[in-house]
Design goal:
It contains 1 helix and 17 strands. The chain is mostly beta strands.
Length: about 230
């Protein structure tokens, strides 16, 4: 019994130490192409547009996240709103390779319904027309007048660009969707809370270089980062 009590005491002490570290130490880390990535130096500033600029450095690598506002919320990357932007740079000797979430053609990644249309039927393979690319297919469900209620992407197609508007075939051909971003260039920065001027949130992104090569950051967090 004494051993059990002593063991519980140790667990409580370790838990307390972990919580204290979380409270007192700023952090910035993520998975980079499925490997652990932790910033060695992180700075946070308010940009000219009033949004955040988070700069994270690790050796010869630099990751920069920018948002259109410093308020809590979700900021999508790879869209037509260039105030929400991410870039990753890797230096090798005198050369620097840069990946970013700028507009880049590819399969549609996130889409947004603009009009629900009418006259449609439930369809597991609803084809689309329009935009710069081809092959985007939705699964749709509709209401009693044939307006689209729910949609999921079944096939992402190819060669779409951010901002493309496509029309779902069938019905009265009046349901439209916008391509928000593409598979090579997308993601989000989430500002979860601001306490005492310190910012906590999460991020994930795909960024692409001029050659079409993609790097991925997933499970990203920033914890209690103070303004510099």
């Amino acid at each position: 019994m004494k051993k059990i009590i002593a063991l519980m005491g140790c667990v409580i002490m370790v838990t307390s130490c972990v919580n204290e570290t979380q409270v007192n130490n700023p952090a910035f880390q993520a998975k980079f192409n499925d490997s652990n990535w932790k910033s060695q130096e992180t700075s946070l500033a308010i940009g000219p547009n009033g949004g955040l600029i988070i700069t994270a450095l690790r050796g010869n690598e630099e990751l920069v996240l920018t948002t259109s506002s410093a308020n809590p919320g979700t900021y999508l990357l790879g869209t037509t709103n260039e105030a929400n932007f991410a870039s990753y740079s890797l230096k090798s000797g005198i050369n620097t390779t840069t990946y970013d979430t700028g507009a880049f053609p590819g399969p549609a990644f996130v889409t947004r319904k603009l009009t629900s249309g009418n006259g449609y039927a439930n369809d597991d393979s609803a084809l689309t027309t329009g935009g710069s690319g081809s092959g985007l297919v939705f699964r749709i469900t509709v209401n009693s007048i044939g307006a689209i209620l729910t949609d999921t992407i079944k096939a992402r197609g190819a060669n779409y660009v951010t901002g493309d508007v496509v029309t779902v075939e069938g019905g009265n051909n009046n349901a439209t969707f916008r391509v928000v971003n593409t598979q090579q260039s997308n993601g989000e920065v989430v500002i979860e809370k601001v306490e005492d001027g310190k910012y906590t949130g999460s991020f994930k992104l795909n960024a692409v270089n001029d050659s079409g090569e993609v790097v991925t950051f997933s499970q990203g967090i920033f914890y209690r980062l103070p303004l510099n």
